[in-house]
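S.,

Sequence below, as promised.
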Amino acid sequence: MSSRFPYPKALSLTRCLYWFATCPDDKKHCSGGSASFNSIQFNSTQFTTATLCLVDNGLMDLETFASLFSGSPYKPLLRHRNAVLNALLQLNRQMQSLVSEHIQAPACTPWIKELPHQLEAMEQEVLSRLQKPSLMAQPREVVIDLLQTQNQLAHQIFRLSERLSYRPLRLPAEMIVPLNNLTRQFAETVYQLRQGVMELNTLSQGGFRKQHNKSQNGFRKSLTDDVDRLRKISHDIREQTCLMESEIDPVDVALLFLILDDIGDLSLWMRSLITHLQA
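The prediction came back faster than expected:
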């Protein structure tokens, strides 16, 4: 028998763990890196040590051993983030058709029906992994905060997409140039966000700490500037719309203001995502 692991002197914990591994799920409970059953509680270190004791004595196979541990929540969290960024690209395509010389029906957005269900499944996977014991300590609060930020960003994307699909805007010719500036700046902000997140992910995985910190500072400043420009253009369009309100259908005025509000909220959640990634 190997002595690599500091087995507990009392075998009660090991026996309990063996029962825990083989009993029905409704009779056991795992939460926050600890496990409990029959009024017995033990932490993740004890859980891991006892499990290795069982494996080393041939009382548990490796498949059962692997099933007891959740794996990292970061993989499903990263998939969730990538799906949100892809939705942002879809939204950008809708934004580019906001201004058109010919009035046409809004483009169909089938992705908005499928993606919420996909994101919900990824969210449940992240939360499920956080609830199970892990071989390493999980920064639970950090993961949940980041997941909530990504969910809020996704919510803003879906809401703005729905606004853009209501009906085509009928606006005076004088507003074509400002709206073109808005869609152009929106596309630039989306591009900067996606490129920055991809770069941060690459440097983080590669362990390039100095390059990572330097990239963080440059990326934060660049995205902040893009968000500020986007919000300023939105503000200018709002003011111009108020001056020309008598020439625009009230429904178009109301819809345009809702779209501008959503763009402002979306831009703030984009900046919040970066703040959480850099925490």
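Strands lie at 29-31, 34-37, 40-42.

Coffee later?
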